[in-house]
Amino acid sequence: MQVQSRKEYLHDYYVKNKAKIRIRNDIWYTKNKEQSVQTTKERRLRNKLKAIEYLGGVCKHCQQEYHHSVYEFHHVVPEEKEFKISILLQHSFESLKQELDKCILLCGNCHNYHHYKEANPDE
Ligand SMILES: [Zn+2]
Ligand SMILES: [Zn+2]
User: Fold this and answer.
1) Per-domain residue ranges for the chain?
2) How far is the CA of 99 from the centre of ligand 2 (A)?
3) Is 0.85 surpassed by the pTM of this model?
4) Buried b / exposed e across 18-30, counting CB within 10 Å, b at 16+?
């Protein structure tokens, strides 16, 4: 009987089980991808809810309370803006907080209106 080197053995194993290995990897990858998409989604929502609470929980302009999807973060001094809040939502709340300190909480309506007025002051 021929003695196989470990390398040959592994190669043989790979060739014989190629399909199986590929499927196993695919399953692992898909599972992992779903998992990480889910985790990112959850973290973003958790951070957004915390951020809303941190900035007072109501729109700074109309003083109304809304569903979290309605809120936007407005940089009071645009020049101080370092990061987009939407990007920071997937990071730690600590890093998010530093940027939130330069923001106010606005509802989508007030935010749009504010920037429209900024661009069209005479209208
Ligand atoms: Zn508002
Ligand atoms: Zn804004």
Assistant:
1) 1-31, 44-119
2) 13
3) no
4) eeeeeeeeeeeee
